[in-house]
Amino acid sequence: MPAPGAGQVLVKVTATSINLSDWECLRGSPLYARIGGLRSPAHRTLGSDIAGWVEAVGAGVTRFRRGDEVYGDNLSLMGGFAEYAIAPESALTLKPSELTFVEVSTIPQAGAIALQGTARAAAGRRVLINGGGGGSGSFAIRLAKRRGAHVTGVDNARKLDLMHSVGADEVIDYRSEDFTRGYEPYDVILDLVAHRSVFAYRRALAAGGHYRCVGGSARALVRVLTIGWLAGRVTGRSLGVLVVKMGPPHFEPLAASCIAGDVQICIDRTVGLDEVPEALAHVGAGRALGKVVVLVSSG
Ligand SMILES: NC(=O)c1ccc[n+]([C@@H]2O[C@H](COP(=O)([O-])OP(=O)(O)OC[C@H]3O[C@@H](n4cnc5c(N)ncnc54)[C@H](OP(=O)(O)O)[C@@H]3O)[C@@H](O)[C@H]2O)c1
Question: Which atom of ligand 1 is least distant from the CA of 131?
């Protein structure tokens, strides 16, 4: 049983959703997944999107008390694949009563990425979500559609129906087609799995368009930050890396949209704590159709 320090909350975990970042931290790849632990793992227990009950609070915690139902993205401390996890008070917020622990556990990280990644989506704009069938991507497609954009989702063939079901106007199987060639250019591209050359991304962008990647190979991200930034500047486009702001103000709007029925939560499966290794591999292999949730306890 871990003990909360000053400003920390001890959460009795009910549900934890798996993010690709858990798999990346487990494998130490891409390279940025090693931040904080270059030679040995930064975290012994993974799992960042947690939902559960406040068991105890550390000194100075004012927003929560024992028994509160909370959820949040515990990316800095992790530890969600366990019965109890310590999280900073600032990472957590109260769970809305309209959503279950399983449902809210899917929202924090993927929701923050999707909300910030689609901020430029608007009526009349062509938006492309690369990796649109994944955890963040399926939220992003729905949000961009709600903003009135024409949305294209790119993922593997098994996820085309899922992307259609959450609102994509067009879908592209990345294994058989290249969205950077032969398609009308896009005003906004959110890339969850960057690996192409910056010149391909620039080619896929309309004049004045914005390309932002949040995940992908370290090499692709560095190229976007350097050559991509420059290539965009000289051609009237903007290419960059989206550093996602984490914390309740950045994901709570998505919970509100889910409660209102504007956004649906796609859950591939719910597994027990003893099935975490298989569930991580399932997500890492890209087989999940929606979020995979670990149900740690029933309350
Ligand atoms: N920038 C930041 O501040 C920040 C913060 C948090 C997380 N992240 C990162 O955000 C990323 C997205 O996470 P997520 O949870 O949404 O991942 P996810 O659920 O695994 O979704 C990624 C999707 O992309 C698909 N995909 C793989 N290769 C592709 C390709 N070449 N073209 C098109 N689609 C492809 C995957 O399917 P298949 O593999 O089956 O093909 C999967 O459906 C992670 O890398 C995470 O580390 C960034």
Answer: 24
